[in-house]
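S.,

Sequence below, as promised.
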Amino acid sequence: MTGRSAPAVLPPSLRVWLGPIAALAALVVVVLGVRYAGDSGPGMVDARIWAAVDGMGSPWRHVASATDFLGEPVGAATLVVATVTGCLLLRSPRAAVLVVVGASMTVGTATLLKSLVGRTIHGADNLSYPSGHTAFLTALALVVALLATGRLGLGRTAGTSLVLAAALVAGAAMGWAQVALGAHYPTDVLGGWCTALAVIPATAWLVDRLADRLADAGRRERH
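The prediction came back faster than expected:
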């Protein structure tokens, strides 16, 4: 099931476009990280966006809190288990591996960047850049979109559009929640979104390469 006959988790039709997009996203993460390294307050853009969402009513705060829960340990674990189960039911073991490895790599990268950048919010102990919640949900959406692209046999344009739209929707939803709750600066959210865009395509490519090599090794042993 993980051999060369299994569909690639990163469809070949998307590699040409997602590669440069991932590189650009990585560049944005680095630039923002350098710009806000060691900061403990909002930038000009952050302040303007915060002012726009200030005074949000209680019903919307409940929505924001519910969305935020999806990035908390219990909520995130539930989403991962549900997504892995769906991948296995669809007989897409590579996608199941990517869910676990991709989400772990994305969150791990965000955590490492927080320590390196050192930007804080609401106190010196609250590292904020990039947003791990936003990175996680965006990463999960990217994996699901990649799976859908492969199963539907979408071409380069349609597939890339679907992947980016899924990332945008997930990132915007979690990003809005983080900003509305005051948990992150808007630029933290952008950094988290770009972290997922940089990590997931690279991880998907590595999963495909490893699966193909294992399949080749298995065939050589049988012969």
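The chain is about 75% helix and 0% strand.

Coffee later?
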